[in-house]
Amino acid sequence: MAAQTHSAVDSLLGILSRAITNEAKLLGAVHGDVQFIKDEMDSMNGFLLHLTKTDSEHDDQLRAWMKQVRDIAYIAEDCIEIYLRDMAPPDGDSGGLWASLRHLPVLLWTAPACHRLAAKIRELKVRVRDVGERRLRYGVTVPGTTDVKRTTKPPGQDNRNEEKMRDDFLRALEEEVTAMKMSLTSMSEASICQSFSKAIDLLPPDLPSEADATIRPILEKCSPGDVEFKCRTMFLRALFAYPPSTKQELENLKKKLEERADEPRELVMIFCYRKLSTQQKSCLQYLTAFHNEKVISRTSMVRRWVAEGLLGKEHERTPEEAGERCFSELLFRGFVRPVGTGDTGTVKSCVMDESVKDFILKIAKSENFVADSLPAHLDRQLQIRKIVQLPRPGKQQVDHWRNIRNLCGGGTSRLAQDGPGASDSTSASDVKDPMDMLLEFLKSLPEIYRLNVLDLGGCRGLKKRHLKSISKVISLKYLSLRDTDVSRLPARYIQALRLLETLDIRETNVEPSDMKHIFLPKLKHLLAGRRLKTSGGTGDTSTVMTSAEVSLSTVEMPRRIGGMTNMETLCHVQVSNNGTELEGVVKLQRLRKLGLVVHGNDNTTKYLGRVINGLAECLRSLSIWVTDGGALDISMQRVTSFSASSLILENLDIKGKTSLPSWLQELRKLANITLSDTQLKDEDQLRLGNLQGLRCLRIRRNSYSERVVNFMEGQFKALKILAIEGDTITRIVFAAGAAPNLEKIVWTFGRTEKQVPSSGLEPLGQAPISGIEYLENLRVVEITGDGFDQQQLLELDRAIAAHPNFRDIKYLRARDVIVAAE
Question: Are 261 and 253 in contact (CB under 8 A)?
């Protein structure tokens, strides 16, 4: 509970610091109240931080006090955020007489509300003082120093080899588990534990020298009969990730496993949970909000963590970077399991095993002082998703709906409750639409409640009146309309969400022009675009043709994009024919990921060059879709001050006719390149081969004009992953010394695509990959679809069987598999 409360207070302190800095925006008396609240919360935060570093159990008095601190932190954050929002100049005006005059009507209009908020802040000051005094009155004290845990630096601070060490450990663990599953029937529990020797040998040396004698007995008692070995592997992962486990800690776990032999999984999970950092515990508990989700998107989860204030800056990382790090830790330690992985090995989505779900639910409930009940913010997120995921009412669903009419109630909610004299017969017209139920639920929330996240992904029946009501939830920081049937996005509604940081409208039919007039000063992530399959042109100017089968429907660039200076992710938006909106994009000096849909003309060339040059020191990912069948020139010849060495670009994705410029070879950090419809030639491939840091190359439809791809000696030195999708390429030839670090080759075709020889120059039945014997580090070869004839596949089988490391290569030959677009 200390972890969750500490995160809430940490988030509030950030808001308070900003409020005090902007003293001019505070009414006279409010400034003193805010300063007092900050000083008190600073002291409480120090107390909470100490609690997160102790192993002692929290008694009821301490838990009750922490719940009071957390609740008041949430309320105070909302009050001050709204107060600052209403006092701030609109539409990004930075100051001056004209800005003041423009803002005067707004100040007059919001003055009564601001004074009411000022009164609430005065009340909060009194409540904060009372909470501080209550701790002393009831003797809530700091635990003794003997209970303080040993701490260590977060992984990755000083050790550059950490990634390799972790990979080696996980590989050894996976190999041992695979071997044990194959021999499970002939192995005893004792012999199973002995089989973990290789993984135990790779544990860090920070463990006490006597630990090995305790680790094996713990493994033996972990979970007898656990055919998946998840309990044991989670325990070993925790030891690897957080090695300073004392001999006494391990002895205590061993003793508990002996005393409570029927609860090994829970005891091990508690041990692993205590090895998490404060932020990691908070983020893990928040996964309760995903309890009913089949699959969890990594990026959506991280952005929700940030919106809820669970992450702050650490070690010069942004909250998003801290979130990615936190996800990696939870993944490594086995609390979440990957289900969707990209070509580069990046985990796109994950799931929680049922045992982990139950454990997190129990932990989250223990954080709440109300017995057997989730904290309010998690419970309400669960209720929102339950409503959103309900089917729309129909004649065949009446009985189903009758059973769930009190879904969110327990007698306390106003949602769809039967009135007096209600009969058993219910017609479809009497059943409420899920979105109407959601609006009633939102109205039933307390007057001041921090609803930061609203995920409507996948819902149907979203109308303009629903958006109007949602726009009144002024505390929203994260709004997902992804894969909904929303068709309009009225600016007057969306702009009311002045605190919004993430707006996700992917896979929707929002009118292209709707986004053009929206201005959101705090927006960090704008995600748009809907991929369509088509066989020809549509005549719709908002639909971008990229190949014979794939198109992208998206929204236009916001007119005042230059004023949204907090923007970090802008994907994918349409740029007009003249490209002038890109002048505003240059001003976004925090932008890390940019996806543009552009026209292949001189205007775009000029402005895009300025964007690449102007964002050289912050932009890490660039995606360009070229429309109209035109060719785009990104040689940067028109940018006189351009210096490629200053670019920190790591990912480049190009769809459409574009030649690869020579300056790409100077990018030392460029690690991932994806090409589609580029129709590159041999000279372009030579430039790719000279990239020093290129680790993953994806060659998609019509991206290469030649039928044979030749990897020459000394090229592609850092390449680890090569992915080819449905193309006219018939062969890949590796020369000796080419791509020496290549680990994975993926070749994918659709159901109807067949390779054909090139003008009779390539004989039928020739192995599609030549020189495979030179790839000493090759580990995976995947062939998906019907691209090759049987003789070609037999030749490939022989080539792989003759490889020196044949036993270490995972060779997959799947047929008729449709690979979903990322």
Answer: no
Please, are residues 484 and 458 in contact by the beta-carbon 8 Å criterion?
yes
| Residue 150 DSSP code | P
Residue 550 main-chain phi, psi, to 5 deg: -125, 135
The separation between the first and the last C-alpha atoms of the chain, rounded to the nearest angstrom, is 37
Tokens of 449: 């409640």
Other beta carbons less than 10 A from residue 565's beta carbon: 15
Strand partners, 653: 623, 674
736: nearest Cα among 713, 718, 720: 713
Count of Cβ atoms closer than 10 Å to residue 115 Cβ:
12
Contact status, residue 656 vs residue 675, Cβ threshold 8 Å? no
- Nearest alpha-carbon partner for 601 in 620, 581, 625, 626: 626
Residue type, 343: D
**Coil vs helix vs strand at 432:** coil
Contact present, 643 and 615 (Cβ < 8 Å): no
What's the rounded Cα separation, in Å, for the pair 631 and 657? 5
Q: What single DSSP character describes residue 822?
A: -
Average pLDDT over residues 160-179: 82
Q: Answer yes or no: are the C-beta atoms of 317 and 329 closer than 8 Å.
A: no
Report helix, strand or coil for 40: helix
Q: Which residues in 544-554 are b (16+ Cβ under 10 Å) and which e?
A: bbbbeebbbbb
pLDDT band at 424 (very low <50, low <70, confident <90, very high): very low
The yes-or-no verdict on residue 377 having pLDDT over 50 is yes
CA nearest to 198, candidates 240, 157, 140, 161: 240
State residue 308 phi and psi, 5-degree precision: -85, 0
Pull the structure tokens for residue 722.
């090569």
With the C-alpha atoms ordered 671, 675, 681, 682, is the resulting torsion angle positive or negative? positive
**Integer Cα distance of 702 and 704 in angstroms:** 6
Residue 623, beta-bridge partner list: 595, 653
pLDDT digits (tens, 9 = 90+) for 264-319: 888 999 999 988 887 898 899 999 999 889 999 999 999 999 998 888 666 667 88
The average pLDDT across 25-35 equals 67
Residues in a beta bridge with 480: 455, 504
Which amino acid is it at 631? A
> Within 13 Å of residue 670, how many CA atoms lie on the same side as its CB?
24
Phi, psi of 121 (to 5 degrees): -65, -35
Determine the 3-state secondary structure of 776 from DSSP: coil
DSSP class of residue 572 equals: E
Q: Is residue 594 scored above 90 in pLDDT?
A: yes
Cα–Cα dist 588/564, whole Å: 7
Q: At what angle do helices 28-52 and 60-87 cross, to 10 degrees?
A: 140
Predicted local distance difference test score (pLDDT) of residue 562? 94
Please list the residues that pair with 504 across neighbouring strands. Answer: 480, 527
- In contact, 68 and 2? CB cutoff 8 Å: no
Residue 31 contacts residue 9 (beta carbons within 8 Å): no
Distance of CA 612 to the CA centre of its chain: 25
Residue count (the chain): 822
> Under 8 Å CB-to-CB from 354, ≥6 apart: which residues?
none
Where is average pLDDT lowest: 446-450, 526-530, 618-622, 752-756? 752-756
- Residue 729 sits at the vertex; the CA angle it makes with 813 and 690, to the nearest 5 degrees, is 105
Cβ-contact 278, 149 below 8 angstroms: no
In DSSP notation, 163-204 reads HHHHHHHHHHHHHHHHHHHHTGGG--HHHHHHTTHHHHHTS-
Cα angle: 625, vertex 630, 634; to 5 degrees: 65
Distance CA 73, CA 124 (A): 10
Q: pLDDT digit string (tens) for 533-561? A: 655 444 444 444 334 456 788 999 999 99
Q: What is the 3-state secondary structure (H, E, C) of 656-725?
A: CCECCCHHHHHCCCCCEEEEECCCECHHHHHHHHCCCCCCEEEECCCCECCCEEEECCCCCCCCCEEEEE
